[in-house]
Design brief:
227 residues, alpha+beta, Peptide Deformylase, five-stranded antiparallel β-sheet, two-stranded antiparallel sheet, 4 helices, 9 strands, globular, metal-binding, peptide deformylase activity, iron, Peptide_deformylase, protein biosynthesis
Length: 227
């Protein structure tokens, strides 16, 4: 969730960050499937990685993009996992220019197979919301439950139930939406999406170019016998 820059993608042989899937990519509309800790994934454009490697690179991608959350479909994996972070000044994560975000982290999260239950059904519309897959577009008025509980597993297979409210609750709800193929613009009136028609069409074109580049990288990797 949210972010004003896109990370630079390093070569697939040793990825520091993943390329982010953009608006218009079909994977952003797919319902993700549960995963297990023993799974190995073929990350598009990168190659085989285990769950822990994927989670760590997702966190690095999120930090470099100056975001607060990132879901697996946003890196091309249709599985039920997301990463998120709570900063000391959560509403201002994009401020400060080049200040390393890690220096302002209170705690970060890797949530595997998360399930959300609502604690406070009253809707909050006060925060501005954005998405790393829809860069440059920010809107207030996205209705989110004020307080939730998230049941999830961590990278060691331990189960947790975490309660969150206000902004952090919004972050978790935003990321869970990604696992169900829902984007934050879907929760706003249709005219909002229409207002950004030009920008969204441009993102769709960028998405097509990225998908072509990833397919080419995968072909080259297979030709080299790297999986």
């Amino acid at each position: 969730m949210t972010g004003k820059t896109s990370p630079t993608w390093t070569p697939p042989e040793a990825p520091h960050v993943y390329p982010l899937r953009l608006y218009g990519d079909p994977i952003l509309r797919r319902k993700a499937k549960p995963l297990t800790l023993t799974d190995t994934f073929t990350v598009p454009g990168v190659g085989p990685q285990n769950v822990r490697q994927v989670a760590q690179t997702m966190l690095e991608t999120m930090f470099e993009a100056r975001g607060v959350g990132l879901a697996a479909p946003q890196i091309g994996l249709p599985v039920r996992m997301f990463v998120a972070v709570e900063y000391e000044d959560d509403e201002e994560e994009n401020e400060g220019g080049d200040t390393p975000l890690r220096s302002r982290v209170l705690r970060d999260f890797v949530m595997i197979n998360p399930v959300i239950s609502v604690i406070n059904k009253k809707k909050d519309r006060s925060y501005q919301e954005g998405c790393l897959s829809i860069p440059g577009i920010y809107e207030e008025g996205v209705p989110r439950a004020r307080a939730i509980a998230v049941k999830y597993s961590d990278l060691d297979g331990n189960s947790h139930i975490l309660e969150a409210e206000d902004y952090l609750a919004r972050v978790f709800q935003h990321e869970l939406d990604h696992l169900d193929g829902v984007l934050f613009l879907d929760r706003l009136p249709a005219e909002v999406t229409e207002d950004y028609r030009k920008e969204l069409l441009a993102l769709q074109q960028k998405s097509k170019v990225l998908l072509s580049d990833l397919a080419q990288a995968d072909r080259l990797r297979r030709e080299r016998g790297n999986g």
